[in-house]
Each structure stands twice: as C-alpha cells, then as structure tokens.
Amino acid sequence: MTALADSARRVLLLAIDVYRHQPDTARWLHDQLRRLDEPLRVAIAGKVKAGKSTLLNALVGEQVAPTDAGECTRVVTWYRDGTTPRIVLHPHIGTPRPLPVRRHDGALEIDLGATSAEECERVVVDWPAQSLRTTTLIDTPGIASTSKDVSRRTVAFLDPDDDTPTEADAVVYLMRHVHAQDAAFLEAFRDQGVARATAVNTVAVLSRADEIGGGRVDAMFSARGIAARYRADPTVRGLCQNVVAVAGLLAQTARTLRQAEHTALAALARTARDDLETELLSVDRFLRAGRDAEVTTEVRDRLLARFGLFGIRLSSSLIRQGADGPAALATELVDRSGLRELEQVLHTQFAERRDVLKARSALLAVDSVLRSGDGTGHHQGPLTREIDRVLSGAHEFTELRLLSALRSGSVTLPKRDADDGERLLGDAGASPAARLGLEPGTPSNEVADAAYAALERWHRHTVNPMLGRATTDACRAVVRSCEGILAGLGTLA
Fold this sequence. Notes:
Layout: H1 3-18, H2 23-37, E1 40-46, H3 52-60, E2 77-81, E3 86-91, E4 97-99, E5 102-104, E6 107-109, E7 120-127, E8 135-139, H4 148-158, E9 170-175, H5 180-188, E10 202-206, H6 219-232, H7 234-237, E11 242-245, H8 248-255, H9 259-269, H10 273-279, H11 283-288, H12 297-320, H13 326-337, H14 339-349, H15 354-372, H16 380-393, H17 395-408, H18 418-424, H19 432-436, H20 444-462, H21 469-489
C-alpha cells in the first residue's frame, strides 16, 4: 500500500472511532475500510444494447455475463474473483440466498427464480479468473431503457442522488456515438466534495465498433479514427479520460473460440473469395447459401450469433493468410478487436492508479458522513483536520484534479508542451517511464536523465512572466510530479 492509501486508512479508523456510538454509520465505515483492501471496482455502463455484458465477457475471458434480454440483465451484477464458482442474490429486503450455478453451451446461466428484478439489490458472482484478481467488474442495466425502473437502478448505483459516494471506483462507459443521453450521464457521474476528479476515473468505449465501418474488413481502422477525433473533442475530453474503439462481440468470441468454429470458418475460407463476399452482403444471403454448401445453414446461424458478418469476413481472411489453428486465429482476432488497447488503457489509467482511486473513494465516504451532520459535535474537528491534512499533502489528488481541469479546458498549459505536461501528470500511466514517454524497461539512469530534463523544462515555465497565474500554478504541479519521479528513483538531492 502507498503512503496515500495508509493515510486514507488512518482517516477511516479515526472516523470509525468518532462514530462508534452510531452502529449503522460505524458499520458502513467498516465496509469502506474493507473496500480499501479489495480489488479496484470498475463498473461497465451504457445504453441498452450497447454491448456491456459482451465486453465484460471479453475482459473476463469467459461467458459469465448473460447477453440476452432476460430478467437478470436488469439487475446490477458484480463479478469477483473466487476459488469456486458461486452466485448469490442480495434482495432489498431479506437475507442473501445462493442461486444455482449452471452453464449452457459454455455460457453461465443466472436464474433469479421467483424473485423479480425490482426486488433485487444486486447479484454477486464469484468466478475463478485471473482477470478478476485485481479488478471487480460490475455489469449495470442499460440507461435510457424503455423501463424507467431499469435505467434508475444504474443511475442510482453510479450517481446516488444523496451524499453517498458511488460504489464504483471507476467507470467504463459504452456508446456507439456521443448522443445527448450519453453526455448527460457522463456529466452526472462526477463525485462532489474532497478529491473531486470528474473525468479522470471514466473511460469511454465505442462499442460495436465494427458496425461503424459497415462491417468491412477495415472497419476497425475507421472506428479508431473516430475514437481519436472524440479524444480530441473538448466536450468529450471534459467527460472522460480516454476513448477506445472495441468490437465487443469479436473480442468475446476470440477469447472463447472453439475448434469446431475454426473448422467451419476454414471451410468458408476455401470458398472462392468473390463468392463468399457475395454471400456476406447480408444475413439472409449468407444463410441461404448454406442450403447446398459444406457449411450448413444451422452452422452458419451459430457463426452469425458468435461472430457477426464482420467477424466471419475477417476470420476467413485471416485463415487464408495463415491463421491455421484456433489459437492463432484467436490471437489475431483479439488484436484486431481493440480489446488489447482497452486492457492497456484500463491498466495504465485505472490499475496503476488503484491506491489513489481507492483512497479517493475512502475520503469521499468519510466526507459524506461529515456532511450528513448526524450529531458528533466537537468530535468531528479532529476528523475534519485529518482529512484536510491528507488532502493538502497528497500530490496525487492534485494531479487528478489538474488533469480533469486540463481536459475540461478550465486550465491550460503552455501550448507547445501541453501533451508533455499531461503525460507527466500521469495521463498515460502512473509509472515513471509512462510519465516520461519512455518504453517500459528503460534503464533507470536514462529515466533519471529524462526526468531531470523535464524538471528543468517545466521549471522554466514557472518563472515565465508571460503566463497567467492559473497556468503558472499548473506548471508548478508538473514540476512537483517531476520531483516525485526523481524522488521515487532515489536521485533527487
């Protein structure tokens, strides 16, 4: 744990002592203390049919999240690492109860039984998966649903209308394009109070990215170009830290590819290229072509459900180019789906900031209790002073707030070095190499040389009389980040 996480722990322990005579509050603070030691909580949100469950399956590497329109998709569902598979339903009223663990055709089935979605607070799925050891993924019902109750569950979970902080440390928000409802939701997901960080704990994903390019083999190139334009858009920059294009269905299928599917795709790849392209002009054409072909209509129907037209077209092309086994094809499909780029973004912008985001959630929790004013009187003074002490000494929070201000445009850095400044503040990752724009594994002496050069460069900005006060203060924060890099390397005198 970092010094910041230790400080957040001390604040929580002090708060528990202050509120020891209020059992409900003390119990809730104990929950926040346990949360500090848990994996990072990342919620996956978006409008109905955005592909949330499909992307979650791709990140986990197994089909654990139902992707149909069943009752369970209308409930907030947590996916945690566990030694054995287990599903527990937590109702609003009553005690939690286990649900049967069943799989059908490789996919996990979640059956709520006689309990309706309205009666469920959450469903918790424990599943042995390496990807869940550092991150708990939370699947949320679609916003902008035709059912107001369904949308309300997600909004209430991610953006409580009282002073209670959200249970998610970070959010991956899926969208096809930036619509008004998407912007409104991202605008709403901004914690108030201490360590406010706004866009820095949110990443946007252009889901179903293959549809942007009309299902062409090069569709992902078009989608990545659109994602890059969104990243540069001032409005979007103020709402999320990054925008990534991902073909979610392709990523999920690649992570769970079967030998029989590769065999069927290989047979399609042996079809004359022009004939196959004609078949792939539409779903109906593709299915009709199976009547008298080696790959039957039934098999084609299953391939469509798993790959879509884009995935079938891309897979057959890759097989012709030498992807002669399921493992080789799966690797190529994952690379081309955009999933690896998303995983890298989640690692650098969420996982590397785990302790900062966790400490932020803890301080928000204590701050919400203080602002509730539930009668501890003079005992609140030491607690308030301790929070102020942590905040004043935590440069990590300064970085988060400044990055958010830079992304929203309310503060600017010298234009020529703006990208360099954001990177030094940790925009591309928290490691020294990432901050300095160096390759991972760069020798420490080269990292130190680059850090000293950056320190000198940004110190010159702080004494530039042509810069405004806000910009100068921002430059001083960048200088402090450079000093932090050097201190971490043990080279700062």
